Input
Amino acid sequence: MSDDYLRFEGVTKQFGPVPVVAPTDLSIGRGEFVAFLGPSGCGKTTLMRMVGGLDTPTSGRILLEARPVGGPDRRRGMVFQSYSSFPWQTVAENIAFGMRYRDDMSPQEKTASVAHHLALIGLEAFADHYPNRISGGMRQRVAIARTLAAGSEVLLMDEPFGALDALTRERLQVELRRIQAHEAKTTIFVTHDVEEAVFLADRIVVFSQRPARVVAQVDVTAVLGVERSLDLRESRPFFDLRNDVLHLIRHETGDPQ
Amino acid sequence: MNPLFTFRGKPSTTVEILCGAGFALALIGVWEAASDLGWIAPTFLPSPSRVAVAGWGLLTKQHLLWHAGVSTLRVWVAFLIAAAMAVPIGILMSSYRIVGASLEPTIDFIRYLPVPALVPLSIIWFGIGEETKIFLLWLGTFFQLVLLVADDARRVPHEYVEIARTLGGSSRAVLTDVVFRAMGPTLVDNLRITLGWCWTYLILAEIIAADSGLGYVIWSARRFVKTPEVMAGVVVIGIIGLVTDQILRAFHRRLFRYL
Ligand SMILES: Nc1ncnc2c1ncn2[C@@H]1O[C@H](COP(=O)(O)OP(=O)(O)OP(=O)(O)O)[C@@H](O)[C@H]1O
Ligand SMILES: [Mg+2]
Output
């Protein structure tokens, strides 16, 4: 894995007098799935927004393929926890919106891509539904599909499943992992949920309390491999790793999660 | 459980319409009875039937429809000018803080000036022609509407804007494709409410300087204490308002099916 696809170099962020991100260095490889784990309010969202170009670092820089990232663009797609799909558009229109500003695709290609992504998230039957007529989990799938359709190379997800029930969440995790393997997108996934992080990620980055500082990194793929199925969740290695990470969080971040 | 009296329950549309009409008819019935039984002097409050007769007289002998048409036209011209200015300016005020910061104090100041106080000035500026009326209506609506629009635009969740930005939309594209779309329902609601205010100022303008329009009809009837005619004129305004409002609501439902 080339380790220098996405690089944080001494990145800090301060809101007024409050330091939110302490100097952070981090490298993420192309196609890698990294989970950001840390106590509430520690600065994970802020870090992610800086990658997306929605905030700028106070100092240091973020490099994508050795070039500093600028303002937001299609290469880095965001999936938010709430307000993730546009209520005035149907599911299909929401997905098509991801390609609205692409001039590298013909209208036919765009139509085909909507169909492809509808199938990818299994919502063909709901193509013409408005977001308020589908479940929260479906809405998040729509948001993911829209970002994929935009052709984003980096997926930035901020607790995308945070508001969902455990069962839906589990199903979407499997699905996300499958999609990610299929599309090979570099992914940063912010979550509070240790099991979610262990199940999804190739690597977990654990942050301290505010100001965020990397306190530990856990190579999940080295332990669990690349294939993740629901059975894995009940396996011994999964369970052990989950406990290790929990332990890390308790002792390294000073936060009893 | 009976949905009629359930807290926030939803009775059927038919029931709702029947209840609305029923209440209005009952009120008219009480009014008719009060007048017929001589509880109230007819010059003070003529009975509904006399108002209806007077209305018929206005309609057949005094070109009531033409006057109503003139008034409606004035309202819509002024309203459309106000809206065409307020919507883009309001959206810009919320999208670029500097525009908002520059305009808001002045707009707020003018907004609090009572329109009647500006009538003399308006007559000095524009004479007593159509310009004065349009100006007064515009004055009464533009400054209110522009702040409402700015607030609507401000309330569009920032997430929508940021999503569109990370999908490659320029500021301009985000403004039209996201902000304008997201604020649609509240915008149409505010336009509907502002249109109602236009009628208030219209009557004022027509009473002061006009030889046509419903305000003129009402005011000239008053001079001869023709109370039934005065009331007929008022009723016509009410009916136009009611019909317009229903049409705009239907338009709202069609346009925003997703709500
Ligand atoms: N625009 C802002 N202005 C001022 N302070 C901010 C701003 N955005 C975030 N903060 C502060 O920065 C800190 C980190 O916020 P951030 O949203 O990055 O945390 P987080 O790790 O994502 O938290 P959570 O897990 O609860 O979502 C918080 O204390 C927050 O109050
Ligand atoms: Mg957050």
Q: What stands out?
A: The domain at 1-75+153-257 of chain A is CATH 3.40.50.300 (Rossmann fold).
